[in-house]
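For the sake of transparency, this paper describes our internal protein records without simplification. The record that follows is passed on verbatim for readers who wish to inspect the format:
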Amino acid sequence: MPLSPGDKLGPYEILAPLGAGGMGEVYRARDIRLSRDVAIKVLPAALAGDVQYMARFEREAQVLASLNHPNIAIVYGIEQGALVMELVAGADLKGSLPLDEALGIARQIAAGLEAAHEKGIIHRDLKPANIKLTPSGVVKILDFGLAKSVEPGAHAGSSATLSPTLSLEMTRAGMILGTAAYMSPEQARGKVVDKRTDIWAFGVVLYEIITGKRLFEGEDLSETMASVMKDRLDLSDAPARVRPLLERCLEKDPKKRLRDIGDWELLLAEAEPTAPSRSRLGLRLGSTGWIAAAGVMTAVAAVAIWAPWRATQTVDRPLIRLDATLGADALPGSRIYISPDGTRIVFQIRSPGGTDQLATRLLDKTAITPLPGTENAYGVFFSPDSQWIGFAADNKLKKVSLRGGAPVNLADTASSQGASWGESGEIVASLDVLGGLVGIPPSGGTPRPLTQPAKQSGEYLHRAQQVLPGGDAVLFVAMTGSLSGEIQVVSLKSGAVKPLLKGATMARYIPGNAAKGPAGYLLYGAGSVLNAVAFDPVRLEIRGSPEQILDDAGNGFSIARDGTLVYRPGAGPDAKYPVVSMDNSGATETLVAGPGNYTSPQFSPNGQRLAMEADGRDIVVYDRRREVLTRIAERGGSPIWTRDGEHLAFTSASAGGSRLNWVRADGSSEPQMLLESKGIAIPGGFSPDGRRLAYAQLGSGIWTLPLDPSDPDHPKPGKAIQFLESTAIMAFPVFSPDGRYVAYHSNESGGYEVYVRPAPGPDGKPGPGKWQVSTGGGVYPVWSPNGRELFYRDPNNANALIMVADYTAPAGGAFASAKPRVWSPRPIRGVGHSLTFAMAPDGKHFAVFPLPEAAAEDKAPGHVTFLLNFLDELRRKVPAGK
């Protein structure tokens, strides 16, 4: 919430802004009751209403308030969701200082750190910029907003949340290098950190204020961090008296490092310093006051300035992992893309108007630039020269210049499955959820077919991945299931298709350096795991054996030609997770014994059984009373119950497209086909009388299938009738409890929203009227059995919320819905384009897949990881083969 001078926040009067960043704005304010100036930090308006961010904000305040020590900036409390803090006016810490003065400062720094460590809190970003001296010579440690309580049982797998996150201030030239220069080696490698990382930083700071020199420096971030991890220390400029202390603080192996900061003075031959006075500091300390934002803001903006080591270097550099966030507006769970030349990134943001759009950021700049005309865009791909991007939106494949201008339409697409821009200018794309690859001229035009799925082998989709260097072949994945496919390559000259390996969902080629190792590498995702194998781009052959590179790349990755890789850490589509029952307070109870890879849950009418899709391929039913899981059908998805709870309808792939099927819910019969479709048909729900099944056929709209309920085991389907016709993606049509309306979600407006239409009449068509229920996005509508509420899920897969809108539908009157509200503040898991919640018959509980606690609490919306020197890592790990 932006504030202006003169505004009141409880007893505090705003005087002036002090700073702003992605996660907060900081103001100088006057405490009218106590007649003192304070610093006030507030969240942006976009986050103030976000339950998860406010919870994180309050936890941060509690952590800071617990650090009540004279050498730590004080937190006074919270006022109307804002953090009220001590305003520290002080001098910048600079060297070189006389030894006694430096040791006096060190004593106060150590005292503050010791108080924090005793509470199980580590700073993780100690450096001179976070240390101030008041006019009376008292040291104040700032920026404990980056601190994290030490978690018992932490392990290396949690390293993504333990590396320091870069703040907006750090994106200036020199500042980011400053942060890197004070990292411990284990921190630079992205490993688990504890209080010993603060002890390392303490040693680096002490060396600097004594000698006036930085201990670790480089021309860029990569060099600086490589120096931290590999260079031998030269402490010859430090006085002999402090070298034993510095050596123990700066042990690269944390096991050999000084374990407790309180023991630092034991290593000094003599230490009787006094706290420095302002008169003795003279010109060595700047006289500018503290800019409060630098001391109190939780770090939020993204990666900034670096020049990654290129593949042409002759010495392998260590892999450097840099965790960062892109800002509060970054859309959670969305992909991030790096340009081929490695100079910029493109990602999705939430615009001030509430719509999703693309934004770009040059890596040597701090500004994030929204790209007009890219609202509701997805499936980003770059031109080879990095000056254009392509994307899908509004049922079109488009391109737009990164220098400005309006987007240009290239081709129609119902649901783009990826595209790649070749060196010749031709764009290779997959334009639908069924079918093969096509070639599109760079200025747009009629697509030319390139491949067709081998339906006899179970292939239903070729996902465009990458035009290989030279433009003569295309790497792609032939999908045979929702979670797996086969990597193949097609020659654009002959049309011949060559299989490479199975069990992948995406693939990417990156050139190597033939003088140092393989000519190139094939990177491919299998669930959350990223693998790599040597690849010959001329013979189009795999060489050697694949090696696992990452185990948390389930949200996709992007890589530049120089080998800089960026990805969002997270579990992949093969992750296992529990199933719980949740009420609107967020309280949960275990629903299914043992975790699994589940989607599409549906309660039986009596609530005692739960049908689900398991492992992306089978239909299972869990009996809650007996705690037994029964596999009902193989290779099926999206199960829905009949009104009597005796049968299930579901979808499955076929050589011609897909089928709607019918099977007994106890597994005592074989599935029988209700309908064969040339497209992907997905069931939504039965009418209250059981005589109609509503289903969506992607790319053509919504249909209903008449059924004869007189023989439940053989419902004798009639001819399907089209209810709504559209090339937009319409899905999950469900009848209201009284059968008068059908709710569904559609991207006809460019983004997914929930709509309601009158139920089909005798001709199968809807009556007059159409109502949009969701605002700001919605998917998977669910009617409450009470006939007064319509639920749905927001489209955010990272931290999805269940929403609810009250409605009225009087007899003889029109449908009307109220403004939607959050049903429960606790987010749930979203899994791709799959249903991830189910209403219990009582209308008060949902079966959901909960988020891990760490993900719900600690992940910022724009959290990303950059891996620098990644080609060197591949050369070390991946055998060249023959």
